[in-house]
Design a protein that fits this description.
Structural class: alpha/beta
Radius of gyration: 17 Å
Low-confidence stretches: none
Strand order of the largest sheet: 3-2-1-4-5-7-6
Strand content: 15-25%
Number of strands: 7
Bound molecules: S-adenosyl-L-homocysteine, 3,4-dihydroxybenzoic acid, magnesium ion
Mean pLDDT: 97
Number of helices: 8
Shape: globular
Order of helices and strands: HHHEHEHEHEHEHEE
Amino acid sequence: MDEKLFAAVDAFVSETIVTEDDALRGAVAAAEDAGLPAIQVSPPQGKLLQLLVRLVGARRILEFGTLGGYSAILMARALPEDGRLISLEANPDYAEVARKSIEAAGVGEKVEVRVGPALETLPALEEESAGPFDLVFIDADKVNTPNYFAWALDRTRPGGLIVADNVVRDGTLADGDDADEATRAQRRLHEMLGDERRVDATTIQTVGVKGYDGFLLALVEPA
Ligand code: SAH
Ligand code: DHB
Ligand code: MG
């Protein structure tokens, strides 16, 4: 696996067609300064999220896993004026870093970061009838990706999109004997979707600065 080459191509794409501004660079720097792991989506992946937000015409977005707010800022920027994004983050320190960067990026009005393990904060969303959502980005604890997907599927409008990051996991997705719980969860999700008529889905493998991984994309069908 030529990680250097993948990173070089990401750098070229980032320099040419995916330009980051000071606020995005600031969000990455603030996260690094605060000791957060540098596991945010890459700039080209972030741009894909923005294009998807626009293609779907999203006005309501739900994100699982805020980290330092990088993907939240990107998606919020692709929303229309009245668009809203709710992002769920388990770590209160990360959420605080994210809130500051989100505010500094000028999208504080559009984005709400909710603290707590997502499975514990979802019931409140349900009570507030926060959905239906137009786009859901699942990028938190990987063992729960199938649970988040199942929750999201009931609350994403027809024509809406559910995106899950980190489903390929260095290709371990193809290994039925892999013991890693996170990988097993992605396999279970795929097996679940094989029989799921409510979505039309695919998984796209990716290489880049973040190594070898991939996104699952699921379009919600009309009822
Ligand atoms: N979407 C971010 C990256 C998220 S990294 C970006 O691209 O910028 C994964 C995040 O999920 C981490 O911040 C981690 O703290 C958070 N997380 C882990 N377990 C969680 C849980 N049970 N509920 C909500 N967030 C969780
Ligand atoms: C990890 C999480 C991510 O969302 C990601 O894109 C890469 C790595 C992690 O938890 O290690
Ligand atoms: Mg991820």
